[in-house]
């Protein structure tokens, strides 16, 4: 279906796309942690500790233009409903986002399930808001794929031993944690029995397998079956799926506990009750429900998630003993 964004979102998209290539998390703008506040307007009306601006951080699922488009409507709705400018910050990996959260340089962030647990249990000061889904009654979740080039002699995870294997990054749930658990179960140590390559993104991992840079690799399901094919970057049938993980709980967006509690509550209400296609269309942030461009190509929007949903991640951390699971502790 065609996707459009409102005029305000188009202006935001252009600005975010231009800025994404030069943004560095260590140089974030004003946030609640800075102790700065606006002297007029909506920000001042809600208290002196209300920040002049908010910073929203994520890593790209595909490319810089993609991340700007992916979050354009979300950021527009945040600005419109909170009355505070929101700056999009692109990070190279989840570890950078976690450290920026811990330092009070990021206020809201899109994390993976694994990086959420790392941030939460490592004292980064975050509360889960919601995860994106395709319908209001859907449980957020996805799976990781182990992929090889079409025609490869690799038929299962045990065959990954001795091969060059692409992962996403050490704090990626479907691009490292669950694949590591799968490899260990197959008798393959992900650190010593393969030649690991950290591709930096799910798209990069899948494409590196397709072009022969890696003999095998991991990426989340829709990146392999939908996103890269529809974008023309991957030919249908170029990759074969040789492994599939158990269902992974959906990637959460989080709010920093460095923010004033009143503002945390406002952001929580926005994401858990309003940040969905029906509400966004009704309130003018999208031309229609079908035209809402939402993160991760989901068609409904956010549903609430609780910390307990991610206990399965903690169990997989126990299985793998990954150093990333205890980062910051």
UniProtKB/TrEMBL annotation:
It comes from the Bacteria. CDD domains: PBP2_PhnD_like. The keyword Signal applies. Gene3D superfamilies: Periplasmic binding protein-like II (3.40.190.10). Keywords: Signal. Residues 1-32 form the signal peptide. Belongs to the phosphate/phosphite/phosphonate binding protein family. This is Phosphate/phosphite/phosphonate ABC transporter substrate-binding protein. It comes from Georgenia deserti.
């Amino acid at each position: 279906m065609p996707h459009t964004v409102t005029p305000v979102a188009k202006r935001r998209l252009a600005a975010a796309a231009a800025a994404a290539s030069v943004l560095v998390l260590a140089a974030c703008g004003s946030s609640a942690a800075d102790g700065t506040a606006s002297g007029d307007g909506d920000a001042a009306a809600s208290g002196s500790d209300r920040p002049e601006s908010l910073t929203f951080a994520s890593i790209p699922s595909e490319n810089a233009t993609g991340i700007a488009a992916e979050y354009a409507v979300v950021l527009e709705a945040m600005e419109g409903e909170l009355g505070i400018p929101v700056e999009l910050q692109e990070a190279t990996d989840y570890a950078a986002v976690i450290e920026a959260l811990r330092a009070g340089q990021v206020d809201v962030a899109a994390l993976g399930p694994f990086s959420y647990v790392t941030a939460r249990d490592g004292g980064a000061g975050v509360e889960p808001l919601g995860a994106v889904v395709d319908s209001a009654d859907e449980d957020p979740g996805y799976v990781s794929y182990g992929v090889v080039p079409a025609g490869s002699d690799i038929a299962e995870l045990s065959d990954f031993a001795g091969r060059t294997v692409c992962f996403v990054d050490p704090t990626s749930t479907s691009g490292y944690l669950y694949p590591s658990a799968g490899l260990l179960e197959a008798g393959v140590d992900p650190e010593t029995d393969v030649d690991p390559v950290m591709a930096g993104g799910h798209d990069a991992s899948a494409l590196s397998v397709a072009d022969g840079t890696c003999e095998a690799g991991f990426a989340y399901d829709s990146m392999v079956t939908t996103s890269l094919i529809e974008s023309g970057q991957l030919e249908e049938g170029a990759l074969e799926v040789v492994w599939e993980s158990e269902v992974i709980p959906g990637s959460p967006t989080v709010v920093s506990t460095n923010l004033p509690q009143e503002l945390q509550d406002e952001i929580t209400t926005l994401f858990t009750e309003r940040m969905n296609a029906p509400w966004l269309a009704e309130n003018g942030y999208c031309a229609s429900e079908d035209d809402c461009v939402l993160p991760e190509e989901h068609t409904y929007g956010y549903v609430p998630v609780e910390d307990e949903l991610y206990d399965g991640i903690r169990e997989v951390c126990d299985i793998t003993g990954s150093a990333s699971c205890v980062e910051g502790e």
